[in-house]
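Need residues for this backbone.
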C-alpha cells in the first residue's frame, strides 16, 4: 500500500510540476504568468517600484517549483530512497530554472519577445 501511495504521489507531482515547468509551451499563459503577476502585485503593495522585479521573481519561482516537483515526482516513480541525492537534484532544478528565466529575460530585454503594455516600465 505504501508503494502505491508513493507512485500516485510521484505521478501527481510530475503532472503538476509539468504544468508549472518551462517544458510545456502553453503553461506560461495559463499558470506561470498569473502566478508571477500575483507575486508582483503583492510586492507592489509594499513598494510600487517592486512590481516588475517581483513579477520576474515570481515567474522564476513558479518555474523552479515546477522543475523541482517533476524531479521529486520522477524520483518517487523511478528510484529507491537510497539512490536519491536531494542536494544534487535541488541544484539541478535551481540551475535549469535560473538559466531558463535568464534566457527569457534577455529575449524581452533585446525586444525579441514583447511584453504586455501594463508590464512596461514607465519613465
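Answer:
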Amino acid at each position: 500500500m505504501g508503494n502505491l501511495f508513493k507512485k500516485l504521489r510521484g505521478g501527481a507531482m510530475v503532472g503538476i510540476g509539468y504544468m508549472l515547468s518551462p517544458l510545456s509551451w502553453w503553461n506560461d499563459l495559463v499558470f506561470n504568468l498569473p502566478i508571477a503577476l500575483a507575486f508582483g502585485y503583492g510586492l507592489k503593495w509594499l513598494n510600487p517600484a517592486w512590481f516588475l522585479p517581483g513579477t520576474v521573481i515570481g515567474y522564476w519561482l513558479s518555474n523552479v517549483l515546477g522543475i523541482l516537483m517533476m524531479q521529486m515526482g520522477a524520483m518517487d516513480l523511478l528510484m529507491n530512497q537510497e539512490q536519491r541525492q536531494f542536494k544534487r537534484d535541488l541544484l539541478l532544478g535551481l540551475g535549469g530554472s535560473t538559466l531558463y528565466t535568464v534566457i527569457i529575460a534577455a529575449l524581452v530585454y533585446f525586444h525579441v519577445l514583447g511584453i504586455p503594455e501594463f508590464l512596461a516600465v514607465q519613465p
